[in-house]
Amino acid sequence: MRTLLQLSWFFRKYWKRYAIGIFFLFVIDLLMLWPPHLIGQTVDLIRNGSLTPSGLARTVAILLGLGLVMYAIRFLWRYLLYGGALILERTLRDRLFAHLTRMTPSFYQRRRSGDLMAVATNDIPAIQMTAGDGVLTLVDSLFATLLTLSVMIVAIDWKLTLAALVPMPLLAWATAYYGRLLHERFYLAQEAFGEMNDHVQQSVSGVRVLRAFVQEEEDVEAFRRVSEKTLERNVSVSRIDALFEPTIAVIIGFSFLIGLGYGTYLVFTSAISLGDLVAFNLYLGLLIWPMFAFGWLMNILQRGSASHKRLLELFDEQPDVADPPQPVTRLTSSTVEARSFTFRYPGAETPALRDVNFLLKEGETLGIVGRTGSGKSTLCRALLHQYPVERESLFVGGVPVERISLSALREKIAYVPQEHLLFSRTIAANAAFGRPDATRDEVAHALELAEMGRDLSQFPAGLETMVGEKGVTLSGGQKQRISIARALLMNADILVLDDCLSAVDARTEESILRHLREERAGKTTIIAAHRLSAVQHAHLILVLDEGRVVERGTHDELMALDGWYAEQYRRQQMERYVAGQG
Fold first, then answer.
1. Any idea what the CATH number is for the domain that residue 527 is in?
2. Hey, what's the torsion of the CAs at 24, 26, 32, 37, to 10 degrees?
3. CA-CA 20 to 30 A from 253: which of 303, 347, 432, 472?
4. Confidence of residue 579 (pLDDT cuts 50, 70, 90)
5. Claim to verify: residue 345 and residue 290 sit in the same structural domain
6. Are both 352 and 308 inside the same structural domain?
7. Which of 274, 278, 281, 276 has the alpha carbon at shortest distance from 259?
8. Which of 31-35, 355-359, 467-471: highest mean pLDDT?
């Protein structure tokens, strides 16, 4: 019942739909009381020998008319109640998807993808059943039970009715006990389903790695263990589920036995007529559905409660980064500045960046280099405000990033990450992802700047070539260049390239960088790279080591220092020379 109360916001919004549906349900329950009464009267007329052909025809006509009327009304309440449940399912899916798009990277580091998929595909339909079948069984079982019992007590015999209800307290205890077990087991079963989803997602995404390391059989065995765990937990749910109907059937059977035995005695003592006994058993038959519905209701509510709990756990998680109360929504400058900037990932004990200082003026280029793990990507992500940052330490356009609205900040910056995510669409659609309204010529020009022109000519469908899931049909360099074209097409004031030229050869890299300098003259650019030739033209180069700036300056100044940068640059030039000679 708590789940229905928690969904009261939805029922209030669509109260007219549910009110009309429940009204029609009440009308159906009233109409269903008429046939047993007519049949009981007919039995008494047969016993008395007073049934006429016209009277029988009238009774049959009334029963047929009732059937047609109930058919139409059943359609109406099903349309209203089940339609409302489907609206709830759509609403919850929309809310869940919107919530997931607002969450920051730290959320996805804590949550498994498979578990999130399980909530969307399994838990939300279980909640939808609560708003559809749950409301139906709750209202119908209450109306049908109260109306039928009232007629049995008033029109037949109250003593016979009470006697037939003796086993019912046992039914209430059994459904409550089974319901508690079902809630616990269904919650565990949904968790296991999420684990299985996550395993499948990782195996499909990493199928190339599995094959490269000949781990197919081991992965199949690991999946078998996960699926067996899911099976065992679902079977444990089914065991409890399977006990509901037999328990209810046995209890209702005892009610029929008492009703038939005691009712026969009352007929012999002339306390009730034979027609009354027939009508009573028909009314008792009408109670079978409410009794089964009551058990089914407990089943639905417990499943819905477990699923709703999992959904609320997701909704209760809030993003680490959100818009400030009075955000700055317009940036007039493209300067980027760090003032003693120190950054620590959520949950980490040691800072990833320490005391970083620099000022990048509008139209300048900043190069960020250093060993693997030195903090290059961290600095780029911090600039996008993907994680909480210290106040008054990182500025864009002269404004602290924590005071800028997220939409304004991210519209100001075009970002090309290390991990190049392409969607299962065409090359043109992937390049125009940030600007869906871009013309075909603009898309083609951006791809030319990213040195994808020659590659496009080799694809039969050109711009309309489908790239497959995550760009599986493309090489690493092609994926990088499409990602660069995507950022260039946005024409943002600040461009951040996070080591996105690692998969292209030196000549292609040189061409792309030349196009960047020509196309983005007067705009701010930040380049994090391992190949120092990518940042050689930068106005300021930062050398990071364990999150600290250990060297800074232009290319010539750093070469004069004869430190890590100079040593690394000479080594890379030698490697390039040797490769060229080879």
1. 3.40.50.300
2. -130
3. 303
4. low
5. no
6. no
7. 281
8. 355-359
